[in-house]
Amino acid sequence: MSFLTLERVGKRYGHVAALEDVSFTTAAGGRTAIVGPSGSGKTTLLRIISGFEAPDAGGLVALDGKILAGPRVFAPAHRRDIGFVSQDGALFPHLTVADNIGFGLGRDIVGRSERIAQLMKQVELDAAMRDRRPHELSGGQQQRVALARALARKPKLMLLDEPFSALDTGLRDAMRRLVANALRAAGVTTILVTHDQSEALSFADQLVVLRAGRVAQAGAPRDLYLKPADPDTARFLGEAIIAPAEIEGGWATCFLGRAPADASCSGARLVMLRPEQIALTRNPPADAGAARAVVTEVEYGGGVSIMSLLIVRQMRIEGAGEKPPPVVQIKALSNDLPAVGETVGVSINGSAHIFSAP
Ligand SMILES: Nc1ncnc2c1ncn2[C@@H]1O[C@H](COP(=O)(O)OP(=O)(O)O)[C@@H](O)[C@H]1O
Ligand SMILES: [Mg+2]
What we know:
By secondary structure, the chain is of the alpha+beta class. Helices cover 22% and strands 36% of the residues. The protein folds into 2 domains: 2-226, Rossmann fold (3-Layer(aba) Sandwich), CATH 3.40.50.300; 239-354, CATH 2.40.50.140. Adenosine-5'-diphosphate (ADP) binds at residues 13, 16, 18, 36, 38-44.
């Protein structure tokens, strides 16, 4: 059963179509990430879900069995049971942490103080911060106050609009985990908007890729990463090696080698490999038939390093029009890295993803 339903949601500003024909559903308790480049309509979509904007005629938004926006229906934002955390947190600068969090609770409710303390605990904010004002907090602490404030109203749905983008990398990862845990513990269905694909892949159980106001693809993160609908989506979700290939009998042959592929396809097609699928052989025997490369650059990265390979011997592909890239970047565990200048054998682990013909 879907919890949040969007059907044919569109939004035009003058002649700019910010959103067109957006449809997807989320399950109760689910975590959805909406990703897309800047200007692809992510914030507009959240504003429509939360009720700060109305969709154009024909669009429908329903939550928990109730239509929030649709033909002759528009529930205002404060009637929607939806929490919203924006990029900058938007805290009230003149209020203390406790009063920011308690803002939605009402001044006089019984147990207000205990409820605030409990919310602070939920987002791992030290009780000693209660009387501080926003300018006396770090960026990560401010975002936790914003989250606690949004959680205070016990929303059915939480919308997070790039809430970690102002934080630096280490803090960002920690905050993402903390927020995911706090929301899971509270059982709140969540939609996270981000332009950071790794954030989206790790946070969500459903990914919606927006491009120019339209849903380019939606599904489980793993499916989208390994089976993207088109090259743009493939590149948006991570590094991708995209090359022409010859498909036959359940195998794809491309310039880097052979790999299992969808057996229902055949002929000349475009395939994708992820850089971590490329395996290297040290000291390849001179007569081996496999593709071969010279390492031109090693970017040491701790556990995993990035290597640039100049392909010096390709597998031959019949009748393929497009040229494969001469240099590919791959990811490999750093344990046994070849040196710059070394010649290595190249092969493919796992299967090749075939793009549907355009
Ligand atoms: N209030 C508005 N008036 C006019 N154009 C807008 C308005 N809000 C958004 N847009 C336009 O809609 C498109 C999508 O914007 P937005 O939803 O903010 O994208 P994102 O959050 O993905 O960066 C952009 O082209 C933006 O300029
Ligand atoms: Mg935005």
